[in-house]
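Lecture notes, unit on protein representations.

Consider one protein chain, 351 amino acids long.
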Amino acid sequence: MKAAMTSSQQTLDSMHAKLGGLLPDFEIEAKAVLVDEINRLKVERNAVILGHNYMEPALFHCVADIKGDSLELCRKAAETTKDIIVFCGVEFMAESAKILNPTKKVLIPSKKAGCSLASSITPEDVQALKKQFPGVPVLAYINTYAAVKAEVDICVTSGNAVKIAQQIDSDQIIFVPDEYLARNIAKATGKKIIFPENVLDSALKTDGVLQKVFVGWHGKCEVHDLFTVQDIKDVRAQYPDVVVLAHPECPPDVVDASDFSGSTSAMINYVRDVSASRYLLLTECAMADNIIAEHKNKEVLRLCSHRCPHMAQITLQDTLDALLYDRYEITLNEELRLKAKRSIDRMLEMS
């Protein structure tokens, strides 16, 4: 009993040191009990917990064994030797972990953790695009479900999309489903953006020569779509020296008005490595809390009010229940898994 009390006190002390000032004391004390039990149980069950950058601070800093963006978590999921993977993220991410680890039990703590962007496109949509643009390589943002990944050539993340697109030996590329990311990558790679519903031969060719074209899709992240240029102007009016960091899922005019644009990992690294008076992150607001907990000597403005309703479904209690009751397990048809794996494997090779 004494040892258990000592362990619990150590957990509470470490949580106060990490999260004090970010979370109220009563919340830290309540969550410390769950943190203790999760950390005990994951050892007992030989489980690893993957935590996306958008997880709430207590979960992200106190129980996640591996933390990062979609690409980092994909890579680490492929390397784990643990029997159970608990993926604290949304469903398409847990699917990716299962694609790379068919013999492992992959659990997602909430069956409601979907994604507006992943839901914006179906396998049938991709098939129709390939029929409309025969022979054109198809890139899919990793924010897609396994059935869509099975229909495309290569997956990409916000962190490696430009690098991979530059390696594709084709003047035309289909990019699904994120419209804003497609627009931002097209601009970075010197391509024109068009959409399948308004394609004319004149948009594809000049004097019979194919133009450099990105064929986009009208999917959007419901969180990043909310940020506006006016948001940036309002913040700069109050804090003229602020450095604004925008995720490339934001609208292109927001990205253009920002000082830096990059994946969640790139934004985290920027705050860590680049000195500034203060920072504003235009992305899911839980990530700013996680950065504040890690860098208390830096001023990160807590002006974000945009929380992903799907990421917010993942709680410490849900994570504990996943370990206790094996819920909710991700299962995939083997033929589908192998088809989807090809597009992820190519991404990992090219990035």
